[in-house]
Amino acid sequence: MTAPDHPYQFLITAIMPALNEELCLDASVDNVLDVFNRLGICGELIIVNDGSSDRTGALADARVKWQQCIQAIHHENCRGIGASFWDGVQHSRGEIVVFIPGDGENDAEEIFRYLPLLEQVDIVVPFVYNPEVRSRFRQRLSALFTRIVCLFFGLSLNYLNGTVMYRRSILEGIDLRSNGFFYQAEILIKTIRRGYLYAEVPYALKQRNAGASKAVSIATMIKVFRDFASVFRSVHFAGLNGNEISCSSVTAKRVFEQRAKGACEQ
Questions:
Q1: Could you tell me which residues come within 8 angstroms of residue 14 by beta carbon, excluding any fewer than 6 positions away?
Q2: CB neighbour list of residue 57: distance below 8 Å, 6 or more residues apart
Q3: Where do the domains of the chain lie?
Q4: What's the confidence (pLDDT) of residue 210?
Q5: pLDDT reported for residue 215
Q6: Beta strands in 101-188 (DSSP E)
Q7: What does the pLDDT read at residue 176?
Q8: Strands 123-128 and 198-203: what pairing?
Q9: Residue 17 and residue 32: Cα distance in Å, rounded?
Q10: Torsions phi, psi of 31, nearest 5?
C-alpha cells in the first residue's frame, strides 16, 4: 500500500499508550519510526502519556519537538489503556489505526508487514506464535481469557490483546464500555459481530527489557471481569448499538460487489 490519495493525511496512525515507560519509550518510538522508513509507510505516531509519574511525558514532548509525524497527548491522571487508545483514535489522521505499546515488547514490523491485507479486510488480528517469551502463568492466563471470551461471544480467534490494525471508519459508532485492558476484546467483539471482514496473522513478541507489565495484577483482573460482564449484558441483552456497516469499509464494498454480481446472474 502506498501513500494515501484520500482525505486522510496519513495511511496509518500508531497509537502508543505509555504509563511510566521512561526506560522503554525512546526505543519503542525509534522502532516504529524505523519501520515506517524501511517499509515506506506514510504514518504518524501518537504517544499517549497516561498520567505517568516518571519522565515519560517529558520524553514524549522531546520527540514531538523534532519529529513532525509525532503527537503527544497527556492525561493528568491514569485513565486506562483503553481510554488512551480511544483518545489516540480521536486525534488520529490515519486511515488505519493500530495500538503499539510503549513497553518495547512489540516489534512494529511484525504487524506493519501485513498492511497490504487491509486492501481485502477491515481488521488484521495478530496472534502470538512464540508465547514462550512470557511466563507460564501469563501464557495460561492469556489462553484462558481468550477461550472464555470466544465461548461467550461466539468468536473464533487465537489471541485478543495484540497489536490489531483497524480501518478507522469502522470504529465510528462503537459504544465503548471498557477503558482498561478489556478494550481490545470489546472492539473485536463488536466489530466482528457486526460482520466486518478480518484476517488473523502470526506475529512474534520480543522479550521485555525493562519495567514490569501492568496487565497482570489483581486490580487489573477484577476490572477485566467487570468489563466482561458489562459488555456481555450490552451484547446479549441490550443488543449492539447499531449494526450498520461503514460505507467506506472494504466489507461494504465487497458486499455491494457480491449483490451486484448476484443481480447480474439472475
A1: 32, 43, 44, 45, 46, 98, 100, 108
A2: 49, 72, 74
A3: 10-265
A4: 59
A5: 65
A6: 123-128, 165-167
A7: 83
A8: parallel
A9: 13
A10: -60, -45
Is 189 strand, coil or helix? helix
Provide the whole-model pTM. 0.90
* Inter-residue contact 166 to 98 (CB < 8 Å): yes
In 165-240, beta strands by DSSP E: 165-167, 198-203
Cα separations in angstroms, 138 against 90, 110, 127, 143, 219: 31, 21, 15, 9, 16
- What distance in Å separates the CA atoms of residue 56 and residue 102, rounded to the nearest whole number? 10
- Would you say 99 and 85 are in contact if contact means Cβ atoms under 8 Å apart? yes
Q: Cell numbers of 10, please? A: 496519513
Q: What is the CA radius of gyration of the chain?
A: 18
Please, what CATH class does the domain formed by 10-265 belong to?
A: alpha beta
- 225 contact partners, CB below 8 Å, separation of at least 6: none
How many other C-beta atoms are found inside a 10 Å radius of the C-beta of residue 16? 28
Grid coordinates of 172:
465510528
Strands (E) across the chain are located at: 10-18, 43-50, 70-75, 94-99, 123-128, 165-167, 198-203
> Which residues of the chain, if any, have pLDDT below 50?
1-6
133, 206 contact by CB (below 8 A): yes
- Rounded CA-CA distance 83/177 in Å is 10
